[in-house]
Write a structure and sequence with these properties.
Layout: H1 7-59, E1 63-68, E2 73-77, H2 80-84, H3 88-91, H4 105-118, E3 122-128, E4 135-145, E5 151-160, H5 161-195, H6 198-234, H7 239-249, H8 251-282, E6 291-294, H9 295-308, E7 315-319, E8 325-328, H10 330-347, E9 355-363, E10 366-373, H11 403-413, E11 417-424, E12 427-435
Parallel strand pairs: 7-9
Antiparallel strand pairs: 1-2, 1-5, 3-4, 4-5, 6-8, 9-10, 10-12, 11-12
Helix pairs in contact: 6-7, 6-8, 6-9, 9-10, 10-11
């Protein structure tokens, strides 16, 4: 029997196997290192998310309660102690109905069952028990779902209604105060506009009143002459004596002058009446209902009064001032026209031969009032802000910055618009558009 030796093949087999084992171990170790890096990265992400959720829960002002399928509290976050007067730890494991005031349990449990059944969020107002007595909370209920989309309980978010109602009351009070402030701003701006007209009003009234006074003084003198003559007639003076007295008193001429004095006094009084009428229209509060009025006539009166009260020798021209009827508040629209004319006059301070043109016409379904001047125009850097409240390019004390802002608001309230139609080195043009109403 021949001897058979296996030392060399076995040694070769063992070395090859060893190399494969070592290579497999290297691969496994490398994979483990990669898995460990991935795991550490995911752990960091989970920790960051946990910290983020903790900070969010710590910052919320509402109570957050997690309820399991058994209706017991699994977690409580937020200002639980501040709202309910008990700690979050004391709430854990409690049945949720133990948190509410007597008589509220059935409504809460029924709502929880509905949310868990149809997975639709719901809102409920409920009285919760606190050491100070029942407190109303507005609670929002949402379903907790597992990875398979099955209901695992409910998340309850509660907000005290007392704070919410106080916030609503404060919001309503602020809204009312804002409305009152806006109304007061309109009145103040109108008074400021009227204040600028005092000098012109005084001048306009002084002329006809002086005319009336002079004629009434003449009438008083003429009356004294006739009384002297009638006294002589009553005393039975002779005809020659009466003729002589008539010539001495110049009664024939007095009779002619009497008619002239009466006519002059009447014209002066009518002028005063017209001025007062315009002033009453101009100073009307304008808080009544909208009415039908002539836009051209309203703009004319506004422009004339502004010009009367200014020291700038400006020419005002009315282009095609035909009757254009519109619907609105004539007092407020008149205020817009006054503001536009006054702004145009202010812009013409350093302009030679200053002029303003008012043009009233019909465009499509609207009545349009254009107020144009031949001033230096409005710079491009200023134009976008001219309708902003309190924005003004005038010196301190010479403008409130509210005129155009209030005018813009009034135009919108009338269903119209107020825009800067054009501006440039040859002047600016503002355009007011209002709904039209056909005249008779």
């Amino acid at each position: 029997m021949t001897a058979f030796s296996t030392d060399e093949p076995l040694q070769a087999f063992d070395e090859q196997t060893w190399r494969e084992v070592v290579a497999a171990m290297d691969r496994t170790y490398s994979e483990l290192v990669d898995y460990q890096e991935i795991l550490e990265k995911q752990n960091r992400q989970i920790e960051d998310m946990r910290q983020f959720m903790a900070s969010v829960l710590a910052s919320v002002s509402d109570a957050l309660i997690v309820i399991g399928k058994d209706r017991r509290i699994e977690r409580a976050e937020g200002p639980i102690e501040k709202i309910l007067g008990r700690s979050s730890e004391a709430c854990l494991g409690q049945a949720v109905q133990e948190l509410v005031a007597p008589g509220e349990e059935d409504a809460l449990l029924e709502m929880i069952d509905q949310v868990m059944r149809d997975c639709e969020p719901r809102v409920l107002e409920c009285q919760f028990s606190t050491p100070d007595g029942p407190a109303p909370l507005e609670i929002s209920l949402s379903t907790r779902l597992d990875q398979r989309g099955r209901s695992q309980g409910v998340v309850l978010v509660g907000r005290p209604l007392g704070e919410l109602r106080n916030a609503y009351r404060e919001l309503e009070a602020s809204h009312m105060a804002l409305q009152q402030a806006q109304s007061q701003l309109v009145k103040n701006e109108k008074l400021a506009s009227l204040g600028r007209l005092v000098a012109g009003v005084a001048h306009e009234l002084n002329n006809p009143i002086s005319f009336v006074y002079a004629n009434t003084h003449a009438l008083e003198k003429y009356t004294a002459r006739f009384e002297t003559y009638f006294d002589a007639v009553q005393a039975g003076k002779s005809r020659p004596a009466l003729v002589a007295l008539r010539d001495e008193l110049r009664l024939d001429r007095t009779v002619r002058n009497l008619r002239t004095a009466i006519t002059g006094a009447k014209e002066g009084a009518e002028r005063v009446r017209d001025i007062v009428k315009d002033l009453r229209r101009l100073s009307a509060e304008g808080s009544g209902e909208h009415q039908r009025f002539n836009l051209a006539e309203t703009a004319r009166i506004a422009a004339e009064w502004v010009v009367r009260g200014t020291k700038t020798p400006v020419r005002v021209r009315f282009q095609d001032a035909s009757e254009i009827w519109t619907i609105g508040n004539p007092g407020h629209v008149q205020q817009i026209a006054m503001n536009l004319v006054q702004n145009a006059i202010d812009a013409l301070t350093d302009t030679q031969d200053p002029a303003i043109t008012l043009h009233v016409f019909r465009r499509d379904e609207g009545a349009v009032l254009q107020v144009a001047d031949n001033g230096p125009g409005i710079p491009d850097s200023v134009a976008p802000a001219i309708f902003d409240p309190f924005y003004t390019t005038k010196e301190v004390g010479k403008g409130t910055g509210l005129g155009l802002a209030i005018s813009h608001k009034i135009a919108e309230e009338h269903g119209g618009t107020l825009i800067l139609a054009k501006t440039g080195p040859e002047g600016s043009c503002f355009e007011l558009t209002l709904p039209t109403e056909d005249g008779p």
